[in-house]
Amino acid sequence: MNHSIMFPLLLPLLGSMSILLFKGFSLKIQKVLSVFFSVSLILANIFTLCMIVDKGDLIYQMGNWNAPFGITFVLDRLSSTMLLLTSLLASGALWYALKSDSDKRGEHFHVLFHLQLFGINGAFLTGDLFNLFVFFEVLLLASYAMLLHGHGKKRTKFGIHYMVINLVGSSIFLFAVGALYGVLGTLNIADLALKISQLPSDNTAVIATAGLLLLIVFGLKAAMFPLYFWLPGAYSSATAPVAALFAIMTKIGIYAIIRIHGTLFGELAGELSYYYLPWVLGLGVITLILSTIGVMGSQTLKEQVAYLVLISVSVLLIAIGINTPASMTGAIYYLIHSTLITGGLFLLADVIASLRAEYKDRFERTPPYQMMIRAGSLFFAYAIATSSMPPFSGFLGKMMILMAALSSQWMFLIFAVILITGLGVIISLTKTGTLLFYHTKNEEEQIESSLDKSIFYPILYLFALTLLLVFFANPITAFIDQVSATIFDNQEYILKVLSKDSL
Amino acid sequence: MEILVALIIASFTSGGVYLILKARTFPVALGMMLLSYAVNLFLFSMGRLQINRPAILKEGITDYSDPLPQALVLTAIVISFGMTAFLIVLSLRARYELGNDHVEGLEEDSQNKESAIEEKKNES
Fold first, then answer.
1. What is the pLDDT of residue A502?
2. Second-level CATH architecture of B2-123
3. Residue A334 CB neighbour total at 10 angstroms
4. Complex-level ipTM
5. A256 vs A266: CA distance, rounded Å
6. Euclidean distance between the first and final Cα of chain B, in Å?
7. Residue A141 and residue B39: Cβ atoms within 8 Å?
8. Which residues of B touch A175 (CB under 8 A)?
9. Closest approach of chain A CAs to the CA of B22, in angstroms?
10. How many CB atoms lie within 10 A of CB A158?
11. Which of B69, B86, B90 lies at the smallest CB-CB distance from A181?
12. Which of A219, A476, A485, B1 is deepest in the core (most CB within 10 A)?
């Protein structure tokens, strides 16, 4: 058995525990350890990605118990891509946390940071529904504490909202798991898919209900309408590196819909085949419209960025709803792009807020402040990338999704909504940029700040990663094409996981 | 017995949902607890309701109850226990920081609280 699949799980867990050991020592040791584990996580993920491209997907049966009796971990191209993306985003967020000293604003930042990564990586790797629940709880518990990092009334208030709604989500998850187990007698994802394909028709109603309950849970994670109201408050009040790391959290919901629903209710599922898609597509369209209104009506920059996260999520939901290999390729490409860009935008919003001193990130006129040109040029680049204009990666991603939409029966609706909301985003980002950087009260004295220009490096780093998506668009899309082909090949997934010689 | 268990789950769930919709943090925490009890019972009953059947291998016994839901319930209990503890601590913290136990952290209450504290100080 190849044990390297455990690296993405063990490294963050080991990291958080070893940082906890140095709790009494200076913060410097914690920082060094944190950076070490973060960098080695990236290296491990690149290593495993190369390995599975080379030798095929890895199936890991915990304790040598064959599926469906043991707990299965599956490292295929999709989960491997998500793992690498997470570790890259996390390294940017961590770099910013070190530069901006936000890890000093509360205790145990680094411990929680790595525990959070442990939960996220586990959710990407697991091949078992109940295990997915457990990893969701791990990442949620870490995220509750991370959200409160830095204290403050606003954080506590939105922390409670975030926690209660996610606890309700966990209960619904368990109801769905119970219903699935009660009818099918298994919780291994591949085995579930197999049993659903052989399901007698008098049980389909229970399974369909359980599937939609799961969609509620994942929709809650992904912040799908009508379950998104917690997101703008929670994300805009979180400390910047935490908010940047949370950019991947909504994408976990997207990943879970692709993985769980795509496998369980794929083309093999007979009567239930893709029955959830109208919900995903319809709610995606509604979310897109409402979040664009949110972007246009935001009062602060961070709130606006939080709504931009929602926009990226709803575009992804629409792409999943179109459900062709081409749209899935576009979705994954856009997912990588939007995660890095929104993560970087949260960091940039925080820098701008601290440059403007007491004006923070509120949309109002300020005296000129230091490093306006640097912050402004970066904002310009990020704004072009988020509003999916050429030449950056968002344009390619959205174009792939729209090209795939040509074959959909809802083509006109999708085109109209995506293009009009895109225009709305451009207008409001232009307004924001004008207000923040051009429309200053030049007659007043400049606001001084003690920030060093090196604070921009992590933001540049995240942006440079999306530039790689553009420069290497051809090999990357070729790879993502393979990823989306495996997403639709449920038969192979089931065979791979359930075959005895996968050990 | 099926009807009894089903009714218990239903009443726990409805009570839990009702309490979660309340505006104060303490009823919300109680509601979360009720909801998690309902979930645990539901999960447990998914292994079918059986009496006098062990879940662990034993000589001379042919009929067993399904051990997996019991293991799942154990995990779910531990997790919901931890989450509830965290929720209560967070609610206490919110009560302390926001000055009231409303889930939205209403402002006018906090002024009342400040005046109440001042009164107490004056008394002492």
1. 46
2. Orthogonal Bundle (1.10)
3. 24
4. 0.85
5. 14
6. 59
7. no
8. 39, 42
9. 12
10. 23
11. B69
12. A219
Give the position of tokens 């209560």.
B88
Q: Based on C-alpha coordinates, what's the Rg of chain A?
A: 22
Phi and psi (nearest 5°) for A128?
Answer: -135, 135
Q: Tokens at residue A274, please?
A: 């893709």
Q: How far is CA B98 from CA A158, B116, B119, in A?
A: 12, 14, 19
Tell me the residues of A at the B interface, defined by beta carbons under 8 Å apart. 130, 134, 137, 141, 144, 148, 153, 156-157, 159-161, 163-164, 167-168, 170-171, 174-175, 177-179, 181-182, 187
Residue B39 to residue A174, Cβ atoms within 8 A: yes
- Residue A477 token pair: 């899309």
Give the range of the structural domain holding residue A436, as residue numbers without chain letter. Answer: 276-471
Here the tokens at position A169 are: 């989500």
Return the amino acid letter for A287.
T
Contact by Cβ (8 Å): A351, A375: yes
A181: closest chain B residue by CA:
B46
Closest in B28, B68, B105 to A153, CB measured: B105
Chain A contact present for B19, CB below 8 A: no
Question: If we measure between CA atoms, which residue out of A212, A236, A259, A91 comes closest to residue A154?
Answer: A236
- Report which secondary-structure segment, H or E, holds B65: none
pLDDT at A157 > cutoff 60: yes
Token digits of residue A145: 């504490």
Q: What is the DSSP string of A187-239?
A: -BHHHHHHHHHT--GGGHHHHHHHHHHHHHHHHHHHT-TTS-THHHHHHHHS-
| Domain annotation covers residue A455 | yes
| Residue A503's pLDDT band (cuts 50, 70, 90) | very low
Look at residue A111 and tell me if it is in a domain. Answer: no
Q: What is the percent of chain A where pLDDT is above 70?
A: 99
Q: Does A357 map to a domain?
A: yes
Tens digits of residue pLDDT in A416-466: 999 999 999 999 999 999 998 888 888 888 888 888 888 899 999 999 999
**Which amino acid makes up residue A484?**
S
3-state secondary structure A50-69: HHHHHHCCEEEEHHHCCCCC
Q: How far is CA B32 from CA B12, B13, B36, in A?
A: 10, 10, 6
Residue A74 and residue A59 in contact, taking contact as beta carbons nearer than 8 Å: yes
Would you call B97 and A181 a contact, using CB atoms and an 8 Å cutoff? Answer: no
Quick check: A156 and B83 CB within 8 A? Answer: no
Task: Check: CB of residue A333 under 8 Å from CB of residue A393.
Answer: yes
pLDDT band at A303 (very low <50, low <70, confident <90, very high): very high
Residue spans per domain, chain B:
2-123
* C-alpha distances in Å from residue A204, one per residue of A25, A217, A265, A270, A275: 58, 20, 11, 10, 11
Cα B7 off chain centre by:
18
Asked whether residue A68 is assigned to any structural domain, the reply reads: no
What total of structural domains would you count in chain A? 1
CB–CB of A291/A311 below 8 Å? Answer: yes
Residues in chain A, how many? 503
